[in-house]
Design a protein that fits this description.
It is a single chain. The chain has three helices and two strands. It has one domain (about 5-75). By secondary structure, it is mainly alpha-helical. The longest helix has 19 residues, at about 30-50.
Length: about 80
């Protein structure tokens, strides 16, 4: 649902990937140990390979949707409130 106009750099692409993985896998985990494991599982290779320093808190805050703007573009939601 994201257009190439809205994916301008590797950080945006990776944050979208983390969001999608979280929606498919993380949302189905039932306890905090499993959720912590999930963020470690995706965080370590992303940080090492792409040289980011994202911790579990940062990874958990990547949210995308089409409901936060009038154009219905699928974008990163910067402010949950």
């Amino acid at each position: 649902m994201v257009t190439s106009d809205n994916l301008k750099d590797k950080e945006m692409l990776l944050s979208l990937w983390v969001h999608e993985c979280s929606r498919v896998f993380h949302d189905r985990l039932i306890d905090s140990n499993d959720r912590d494991w999930f963020y470690k599982l995706i965080g370590e290779p992303v940080n090492k390979t792409f040289e980011f320093e994202w911790d579990a808190v940062a990874l958990s805050q990547f949210i995308f949707g089409d409901y936060a703007n009038t154009n219905k573009e699928y974008l990163r939601i910067e402010n949950i409130d």
